[in-house]
Amino acid sequence: MAEAVWPAGPQAQSTQAHPLTEARPRVDASVGISIRRLYKIFGPTPGKFLEPVQQGMSKQELRDVHGHVLGLSNISIDMPAGGIQVVMGLSGSGKSTLIRHINRLIDPTAGEVLIPVDGRELDVAKMSPRELLRFRREQTAMVFQKFALFPHLTVLENTEYGLQVQGVPGRKRREAAARWIERVGLKGYEDSYPNQLSGGMQQRVGLARALTNDAPILLMDEAFSALDPLIRADMQSVLLDIQQEIGKTIVFITHDLDEALRLGDRIAILRDGEVVQQGTGQQIVLKPADDYIESFVRDVNRGRVIRCRTLMQGGAAPVQGPAVDPSLVIEEAARLLSAESCEAANVVNSKGRHLGTIAMADIIGAMVPPRPEAQGAPAAGT
User: Fold this and answer.
1) Which of 199, 245, 344, 365 lies at a CB distance of 3.0 to 4.6 Å from 319, suitable for a disulfide?
2) How far apart are CA 305 and CA 302, in angstroms?
3) ∠138-139-141 over CA atoms, to 5°?
4) Hey, where are the domains in the chain?
């Protein structure tokens, strides 16, 4: 098989082609990152226990009897190109371990991490040290929970640091950094130091630094978890607004379901190093895979997750009422219907074509979570 050639990006130091690890033709252009059958066992001899784990050895036996820890078990996820893939779970579920496999800060015990580069899929797990270094510099950027800013550098210097490592000329990197500093709302703070900024402002610097690199993949490991609720919501809005402009492949780690539902085009929920369920937020809320997922989604505001296309009566004749997009969440549709004192709306696509209708009664019914199943009929006379 022919070797892949690394494309020269906008910040490439040279136009010379660089051979990379052996690659395969790209299969699906909608997939930005493909993780296949990924395992991670921590311990002195992880390879020795790979087959027993694959054959069903429990996480507890691996730890208590053999002194090894199972970090990830048979993870397979196709992450959307140009979209936001959220990976969520409680502490110890393996979500941060997983994201660190994408840029190989952690080496896998087995499995593939396939990234499209120049029309081919490259396996990060098989890259040489030189290939991996270049991959990290040019194809990925990372935003950390604890900001990870250099305390002795100014906002501008922190933001341009990645380009400085790549050897980009000073004027060009300062122009790029200044653009993203302004874009995240920090214009005027270019000469400030991290200790002069609030937590939310420091995280904006971290985001600006990652965006300045112009890498196609953005990794965000609990990037907003340390922020106060209002600042956190504001940063979520900033990210969504910027994503509309840049269309990066973003992997976002969180333990917060509301954050996952707001940000994620796709969501994967992990427990004990395994994927319990993956899909859109709407799929997870409406069809939880098991009791564990159901406990997560029980108190979710369903009106902010379910979209009009789900409740639409397809083919129904037009009604007297407002027009709504099929992707609009039903909470907004209900607000619109209430403001116009209408009982139903017409669902139309971006070209104005009538697709069906949605009724206020159906919206109200969908926003109320179903009752838990009765545990048994009450005894007579009680």
Assistant:
1) 344
2) 5
3) 90
4) 80-107+128-291, 303-367
